[in-house]
Structure formats: C-alpha cells, structure tokens
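Key result, reporting period 2: structure in, sequence out.
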C-alpha cells in the first residue's frame, strides 16, 4: 500500500520493517537505520526503524534489555557517547573477550603494562612523599587502565552490533531472515572470557609483580638513604665548623662516632677523614638496596675557603640513590 503524501507507513511484518514514505522523503535502503521527517526540527525529526530494536536485541545477546534502549538512543542522537560500564571497569579484558571484542581485549590487557612503564619514568620524583607514591602507582597500573574500558564499553558494543546488523541485512532479503542469521552467531563467548580474559589478567599480574616489587624496593631505599644523609648533616656541619676554626678537619673526626644510628637503624657507621674531611657513611642491613655499601661525602674547599659537598656513591646502583647523589 502506498502512503498518502507527507505520511509514514510500515511494511508488512515479513519485510524490512523500514518505513515507506512518498517522494517528499528519501526512502530508506535495506541497511538504513533512520529516516528524517520533513517539517520537524531537532531529534524528534529522527525516527528509528521498528525492526532495528529486534535486530539489535538478537545481535547483543545477554543483557539486551540494558544495551538496546541505549543503542536506540544513540541512533536517534547521531552516534555513541561516553558512558560507564561496571563489568568493563572491574575486569576490562575479561569483559571484552566475553563480548568478542578481540582488539579491545588485547588493548585493555596491555594498558596496565603501559601504566607501569609510565610510572617507572617518574616514580622517583615521588620519593619522600609517603602514601602518595602508592596512590600514583595504583592510579597508573589499575585505575586509569580500568577507567578507559569503562567509558568506552557501550560504544564498542554498539559499533560491533551495528556492524553485525548491517552485514546480516546486506546478506539477506528480509528482516526475519536477518534475525535468523544473527541468531546463528553467538554474540558472546564465555570460553574466550575465561581463556583469553583470565589468561590476560594472570599474565598481567605475573608481569607487573617483579617490576613493582623492584620499584618499591628502590623507592624504599631512596627514602632511607635520603633520611640517613639528612641525619649525617650534623657531621658535615661539624666538619665545616672545624675547618673554619682551625683550617683543618682533625677536630671533627670524633663527631661521626658520636652520631646515633637512630630509630631507622639504616646507618651502620660514619667516619670522618682527618686529612680531607671526607665523611664515609656505611649503611646497615635495614636498607636492602645498599646494605654494607657506602656513600662518600667529599668536602671541597674553594678559593674563598668555602666548603661544599660532593656525593660519591660506592657500588650503589643509580636507581637507589636520592636526587642529590645522582650523577
């Protein structure tokens, strides 16, 4: 039946389900999703094909009641928008592989590794700030890699479903045949979620464990060395005072022996050279990255008889050193 001019009618149930309009409105094709009504402005001018809800529902599979209304809103509004999806936030790779989003699953799997790499490049700048170091670490390797999947989940499923529906309609001659074709393809895979998603999480945890432990050890060592060197500042001041009073360092040699180890127990011994005023700080077993190793604080006297200090680490890797001792 041909609709009167300026009106919209619908095909019989066994056809595409797309609205038929007269020459005043461009007729939809087999794969078109919406039509534009003449004389109506804004979103109300856009009408979604009745059959599209059914096709979307079949293509989505589980939890279609939650997805399809949102997808139809995307159709009316011109495209997907950022939303929030809790399963994707809690286990992005598992969710992506469950929904057969293969590329997204791979990307979500490597995001924590990228976050750990990024953190390793600036984590040293957070030394001495306490809990902030752990907060930034969690932000880099867990929160940000989890937020990205959560915000993009609905759009990713929408694009996959939209493509599946378009392909089914292109390969068939009626809406009912398109539904049958979509029903033959499982929209989700529990096996892929367990095998690929679970495997990705296991690999990520195994891969992140050693570098995080190593970075934590380096962080703790840098903090301990910085605190110990701050305590040794008393010895350095005594050396400078001895130089100013007598022009030698001999009177400062006993100061290092009087320095208490303090509650940390990080400093094993402190000695002062009577000839050069060099302070040697040897660290104890409570500093794993520097146990039994030393830092030399060399006094340098310029032409104006001013004393400055040069930090010389002995066999201590650079990543364990506080900023003042890094070359």
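The corresponding designed sequence is given below.
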């Amino acid at each position: 039946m041909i609709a009167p001019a300026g009106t919209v009618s619908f095909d019989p149930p066994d056809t595409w389900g797309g609205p038929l309009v007269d020459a005043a409105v461009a007729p939809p094709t087999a794969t078109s999703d919406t039509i534009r009504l003449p004389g109506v402005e804004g979103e109300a001018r856009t009408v979604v094909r009745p059959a599209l809800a059914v096709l979307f529902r079949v293509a989505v599979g589980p939890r279609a009641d939650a997805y399809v209304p949102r997808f139809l809103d995307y159709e009316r509004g011109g495209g997907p928008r950022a939303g929030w999806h809790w399963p994707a936030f809690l286990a992005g790779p598992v969710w992506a592989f469950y929904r057969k989003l293969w590329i997204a699953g791979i990307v979500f799997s490597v995001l924590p590794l990228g976050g750990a790499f990024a953190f390793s490049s600036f984590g040293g700048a957070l030394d001495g700030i306490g809990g902030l170091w752990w907060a930034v670490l969690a932000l880099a390797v867990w929160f940000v890699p989890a937020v990205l999947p959560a915000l993009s989940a609905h759009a990713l499923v929408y694009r996959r479903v939209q493509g599946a529906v378009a392909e089914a309609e292109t390969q068939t001659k009626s809406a009912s045949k398109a539904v049958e074709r979509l029903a033959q393809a499982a929209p989700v895979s529990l096996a892929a979620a367990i095998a690929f998603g679970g495997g990705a999480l296991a690999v990520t945890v195994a891969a992140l464990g050693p570098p995080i432990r190593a970075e934590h050890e380096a962080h703790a060592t840098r903090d301990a060395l910085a605190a110990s060197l701050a305590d040794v500042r008393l010895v350095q001041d005594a050396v400078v005072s001895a130089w100013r009073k007598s022009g030698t360092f001999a009177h400062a040699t006993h100061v290092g022996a009087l320095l208490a180890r303090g509650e940390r127990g990080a400093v094993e011994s402190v000695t002062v050279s009577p000839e050069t005023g060099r302070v040697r700080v040897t660290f104890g077993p409570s500093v794993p990255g520097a146990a039994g190793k030393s830092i030399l604080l060399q006094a340098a006297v310029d032409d104006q008889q001013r004393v400055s200090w040069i930090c010389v680490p002995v066999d201590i890797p650079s990543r364990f050193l506080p900023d003042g001792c890094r070359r």
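The chain has two domains: 42-188, 232-325. The first helix runs from residue 50 to 60. This case is discussed further under Risks and Mitigation.
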